[in-house]
Write a structure and sequence with these properties.
Blueprint lengths: L1 E3 H4 L10 H10 L3 E6 L6 E13 L7 E6 L5 E6 L9 E10 L9 E3 L2 E3 L2 E2 L33 H5 L5 E5 L10 H11 L23 E4 L5 E10 L8 H9 L7 H13 L3 E5 L7 E6 L5 E3 L5 E3 L5 E5 L2 E5 L3 E2 L12 E8 L1 H11 L4 H8 L6 H14 L4 E9 L8 E4 L1 H8 L5 H10 L3 E4 L4 E4 L10 H12 L20 H15 L3 E2 L5 E2 L3 H4 L24 E2 L4 H13 L5 E11 L8 E11 L15 H14 L5 E5 L6 E11 L2 E9 L1 H6 L6 E7 H7 L15 E10 L4 H11 L5 E10 L8 E10 L8 H19 L2 E2 L2
Parallel strand pairs: 11-14, 25-28
Antiparallel strand pairs: 1-10, 2-10, 3-4, 3-6, 4-5, 6-9, 7-8, 12-20, 12-21, 13-20, 14-17, 15-16, 17-18, 18-19, 22-24, 23-24, 26-27, 28-29, 29-33, 30-31, 31-32, 32-33, 34-36, 34-37, 35-36
Helix pairs in contact: 5-6, 6-9, 7-8, 10-12, 19-20
């Protein structure tokens, strides 16, 4: 928000207050002043002058020679290339020795052989933003009104003797996006009276044809709509003083009607819009939702495609404006306009914000509606604009005004306890002092037995509860006057929870093992489940859908973690990076019936493809199922998981049915490990085998953390025996290992490992041979062959009984 110091003085007495002091006090009160600009500070010796005669340049087609007077007897000869110079114009003239914006100094010079004694100035050369100048002067000489006196300093005439304060407002302070809003704050800070702009109307009786009707079909999106009729409109330039103030606020002057609507918006914070009355069918305004796909041209001459959640202002023929954002091209005010319908309304902030974003169209009006305006000020703003137009002779105010206000706003009254104020601020304020501070901010305060009953004015929609009022007291009293106190309380040592420590352990283990951690989006596309081949009735398709997704590709919350890893592998593969080992620890989201927030389940997933890095002394290793299983096994043991087992799983969507296993800890189901299904691998355009696992991290927390037990180094040698048995092909080796441990003596059977699996000519069809290495060792003696043979015999009998196993010959 750009605040003109000169303009501000109209509403509050600033005598004795410099712009620097004003900026400091505003910042301390919570309205941060980012910059203080003095646009005309460096500009000297620029006067008003009149072009008496223009001659062509003898040596240049694009240059002309202007003979200019600044009010004296001498004519200045100035060479210029500006395309918009004409005889009789009054323009800014920089004489020899003048300084312009940016430090440019004007000297006597020769341009293509012709002497030039000065310079005709553009607005940009005088430090003005070209975007705030009329279109014909944006890149040419600045043209002043014909009745401008000659030979006077140009700075006061175009507002360069002003000081501009650039405010960086927080989103809740929409009330300060106006000169009156800032003046209200200044008056309260310095405890000086606020001078509101006068509203005086001299209305003429309406004619029979002067009909205005306003129907609000969406009262939830438009709570108030004021329409006022103006006749005998004369379109022309607005007064110089108004153009100066608009430029100071960063707004381009256009014509008197549009300039007045912008002026009142900058002054009171209420956006207005002017319609050409004769372009509205029967003067009938309809405030409604757009129909899906409805088209209209906005004032920027772009065609806009509207959706059903957007609010429009329409007549019986169709939309004439996008409510609160921009007017329509078909109803704009032009030089031929003679009757104007003035709109002053209150629109729902959320609706305006959504419409503005979806259309990619942001305006000064929408930025104010988005933050919330004063609903009680709609009619006052319309009357102020009508009065200004009548005052400058640009329109006649007709006694036709429609104020459609279905549910008038109810004033908020909040109980403020002085003891609570002093407790939170550590101040000794009395109730009269608190009342005085709030009254200066135009809150109405009434003393009550319980405390102070504070009525919130309409321009402060951000104030809703007691602590909001306490903040108002604090900032007006002065945060710098609140005493410094050290915090008190019990000091506790910060520490990570067990879940946080386990997550850190897991991440460190995998990272040190050569895996790269990735973080993928929690938002995914519904088409992910089709690529994975997940059935329609699967619980994984029961997703949480986003109400406002960024795109279709990110419209639902994920219920599986590993698809994100596949996206990473695919992206890397497309860039010729085909080997990789990655992991992610993230959250899955499942809807909960009857509850707004979803259930969040932490999960751990990892994926490998290709080979490990090789070297001069090591060959690359294929990262297949057994590689990843070894990593997972080591990880689980590292975090204290006991009784780990892997059970074949054939019905897991997305995984290879014959190369997938459920990961168990005792009876607890931890997750899944397996190879990616070939169809899924093809869907992700991955040329190499991919193996992955996904674990429920909550379950991992429950089964981890088993303490390690110390065992002394053995004093006596151990004995290893190989045992090869033939069993049915569908019997898992893990089940056989469990049976071996159960049948053997746990006091001496230390370890069982598979070292060979064979099926071929020497083994019966439908069976396979599995060879195990069994290690026996006692703590108190050296084992004899007879003891070991007894163990082998007992184990073999148990395998025959349980699995029909035979000893391989």
């Amino acid at each position: 928000m750009r605040v003109s110091y000169k303009w501000l003085r109209e509403y509050v007495d600033l005598d004795g207050i410099t712009p620097g002091e004003l900026a400091e006090r505003l910042t301390l009160a919570g309205l941060a002043v980012e910059a203080v600009e003095e646009p005309g500070k460096d500009i000297t010796k620029v006067y008003t002058g009149k072009i008496i005669k223009i001659e062509p340049h003898p040596n240049a087609d694009k240059l002309v020679i202007c003979h200019v007077t600044t009010g004296g007897d001498e004519l200045l000869q100035i060479v210029t290339g500006a395309p918009n110079v004409r005889e009789g114009q009054v323009v800014p003239v920089a004489v020899v020795g003048a300084r312009l914006a940016g430090g440019v100094t004007i000297k006597k010079a020769k341009l293509r052989g012709v002497e030039s004694r000065g310079m005709l100035c553009s607005g940009e050369e005088l430090g003005l933003d070209p975007a705030t100048l009329p279109k014909d002067q944006e890149y040419g000489i600045m043209i002043l009104p014909a009745d401008t006196p000659l030979g006077v300093d140009v700075k006061p005439l175009i507002g360069l003797d002003d000081v501009i304060l650039e405010l960086e407002l927080t989103p809740n302070r929409g009330d300060c996006m106006s000169m009156i809003g800032v003046a209200r704050e200044v008056a309260a800070i310095f405890n000086r009276p606020l001078k509101m702009p006068r509203v005086e109307l001299d209305e003429t009786p309406p004619a029979p044809e002067d009909r205005v009707r306003v129907d609000i079909e969406e009262s939830g999106l438009c709570r108030r709509y004021v329409a006022r009729l103006l006749k005998n409109v004369k379109i022309g330039p607005s007064p110089v003083w108004m153009q100066q103030r608009l430029r100071a606020a960063g707004v381009r002057p256009i014509n008197n009607v549009v300039d007045v609507t912008n002026y009142v918006m900058m002054e009171l914070g209420q956006p207005l819009h002017a319609f050409d009355y004769h372009k509205l069918k029967d003067g009938h305004i309809i405030v409604r939702r757009a129909t899906e796909g409805e088209l209209m041209y906005t004032l920027d001459k772009d065609e806009r495609k509207l959706s059903a959640d957007m609010l429009v202002i329409a007549d019986q023929n169709g939309p004439v404006a996008v409510a609160g954002v921009m007017g329509g091209l078909d109803s704009e005010v032009t030089d031929q306009t003679r009757v104007v319908l003035l709109e002053s309304a209150y629109f729902n902030p959320v609706s305006i914000r959504r419409t503005s974003r979806n259309l990619g169209l942001r305006s000064e009006s929408s930025s104010r509606f988005e933050k919330g305006i004063d609903i009680t000020g709609c009619k006052r703003a319309a009357d102020r604009a009508a009065g200004l137009l009548a005052e400058m002779g640009a329109a006649e105010v007709v006694a036709v005004v429609v104020d459609n206000y279905p549910e008038p706003a109810v004033e908020k009254t909040i109980l403020l306890r002085p003891d609570r104020v002093n407790h939170l601020l550590d101040l000794p304020l009395t109730p009269p002092e608190i009342k005085d501070l709030l009254t200066r901010l135009q809150f109405r305060v009434k003393e009550d037995e319980q405390g102070l009953l504070v009525t919130v004015p309409g321009h402060r929609p951000d104030v809703g509860i007691e602590v909001d009022l306490i903040e108002e007291v604090a900032r007006l009293y002065g945060f710098n006057h609140v005493p410094n106190t050290l915090p008190t309380g019990v000091i506790t040592q910060g520490a990570r929870t067990y879940e946080q420590m386990l997550a850190l352990k897991v991440k460190n283990f995998l990272s040190l093992g050569g895996f790269s951690e990735v973080v993928t989006y929690s938002f995914v596309s519904p088409r992910v489940f089709d690529r994975l081949g997940i059935p329609v009735d699967s619980r994984y398709r029961n997703v949480v859908a986003l109400q406002n997704p960024l795109s279709e590709e990110q419209s639902v919350m994920r219920t599986l973690l590993y698809p994100g890893l596949l996206d990473v592998l695919q992206r890397n593969s497309n860039r010729q990076v085909r080997d990789g080992a990655i992991f992610e620890l993230g959250r899955l989201f499942y809807p909960r019936e009857g509850e707004l927030l979803p259930e969040e389940v932490p999960a751990l997933a990892a994926a490998v493809t290709g080979f490990t890095p090789g070297g001069w002394n090591a060959r690359p290793v294929l990262m297949d199922f057994y590689f990843l299983k070894g990593v997972l096994n080591a990880l689980l043991k590292y975090v204290g998981v006991r009784d780990i087992s892997y059970v074949p799983a054939t019905d897991i969507p997305g995984f290879h049915p014959g190369r997938t296993a459920a990961v168990l800890s005792g009876e607890q189901h931890l997750g899944i490990i397996g190879e990616l299904h070939p169809d899924v691998q093809e869907a992700y355009d991955l040329s190499q085998l991919v193996t992955l696992f996904e674990l429920n991290f909550d379950v991992l927390v429950d089964v981890s953390g088993k303490p390690r037990q110390y065992a002394p180094l053995p004093k006596f040698p151990g004995v290893e025996r190989d045992l090869a048995v033939v069993v049915q092909r569908n019997i898992p080796a893990g089940d056989i290992i469990k049976q071996i441990y159960r049948a053997g003596d746990s006091a001496i059977l230390r370890d069982v490992q598979v070292f060979d699996v064979y099926s071929g000519k020497q083994v019966e069809e439908g069976k396979r041979s599995i060879a195990f290495t069994l290690k026996f060792q006692a703590e108190d003696r050296t084992l004899t062959d007879e003891e070991v043979n007894q163990q082998i015999s007992a184990i073999m009998r148990a395998l025959e009984r349980e699995f029909g196993a035979t000893l391989r010959q």
